[in-house]
Structure formats: structure tokens, C-alpha cells
Amino acid sequence: MTELGAADETEKVEPGTTLLLVDDDGPFLRRLARAMETRGFSVEIAESVAEGLAKVRAKPPQYAVVDMRLGDGNGLDVIEAIQEKGDNTRMIVLTGYGNIATAVTAVKLGAIDYLAKPADADEVFAALTRKPGERAEVPENPMSADRVRWEHIQRVYEMCERNVSETARRLNMHRRTLQRILAKRAPR
């Protein structure tokens, strides 16, 4: 992972622009918060879905970066709560368990981008401040065969509404094998 360091003078938002960061990785969360503060954001942090929802209810942010898997639930619940507030919050999902199905779900709920961990502050800032219609850069390396398999499993898992037994049945796979696959991070 690259350093989550200070920004150039050209990489800043208007002072007072609010940003909510929701991630259960405390050290990463605090480093990212410091890096975003140097870029002009007024940062609020939350380390759980419950804490994120409370902050959204108190005052919806202008920008949000939400981790997908949190200790007490799914970060998409925070994305959905922000969207229900009706504000024009620019949201991105940040996760170490990235897959196409959850990316599509996140975008349908109102997220503007989906970044896989490890992501540095520059990538997060670029995703948050990208102008509408501006495209993200195409990745240099295509997905590996292991990654494609993992993506397919994740897509079926999401189609089955995260029901492990039903997903295993549809994939003709033993339930425990599927649970082990789901517990691991995505292959590169």
C-alpha cells in the first residue's frame, strides 16, 4: 500500500466540505482521515454500521467512503441510509472483498465508485472528486482465472440474498467449501 500522505495544493476541496469515513480497520481509518483532512475535508469517522448510521442521521455528509464488510454488518446499509436522506452525497465503496455483484449493488444504491483495498488516499480522493462523465483509468492487468471464479461465486451468492446453503446448492458445491471461499479475500 502506498503512503496515505499529504496532498499537493492543487488537490483540495473547499474548506468545510464534509466527509464520512466508515471502516472497521482503525489504523487505516485514522490514516485515511488525516490524509483527507490535508485535502480540505472536514472528516467524521465511524468504525461500525451502527456508528455510521447514527452519524448519517445526525448530519448527512457531502461525501462518504464506506467499507463493505464491517464487524456489525454490511456497509451497504450505510450507503442506503445516506441515499434515503435524499441528499446528493457522493459515495464510494471501499473493500478488500470486491466483486462485481456487490459493486453493481453499491452503484444501484447510489455509490459513484467502488475501490478495492488496498487503496491509497490519492485513489480515494480521485474517485470522490471525479467529475460526472469522467472515466476511471482502465486497469493494466486483466482478472486471473481464480479471480473470475471467485467473482462468479460472489455473484451467485448475492443472487441468493447471501444464503450460503442456497448458493452452495446452485453451484453444486459443499456448503463448508463455499464458506471457506467466502471467508477469504478475493484472489488477484
Automatic annotation (TrEMBL):
GO BP terms, alphabetized: phosphorelay signal transduction system
Molecular function in Gene Ontology: DNA binding
Residue intervals of the Response regulatory domain: 18-132
Keywords, sorted A to Z: DNA-binding, Phosphoprotein, Transcription, Transcription regulation, Two-component regulatory system
Sites of 4-aspartylphosphate modification: 67
Pfam families in the record: Response_reg
InterPro entries in alphabetical order: ActR_PrrA_rreg, Bact_response_regulator, CheY-like_superfamily, Sig_transdc_resp-reg_receiver
Domain of life: Bacteria
Keyword set includes Transcription regulation: yes
PANTHER family: PROTEIN PILG, STRESS RESPONSE REGULATOR PROTEIN 1
Record NCBIfam families: ActR_PrrA_rreg (NF033791)
Protein name stated in the entry: Two-component system response regulator RegA
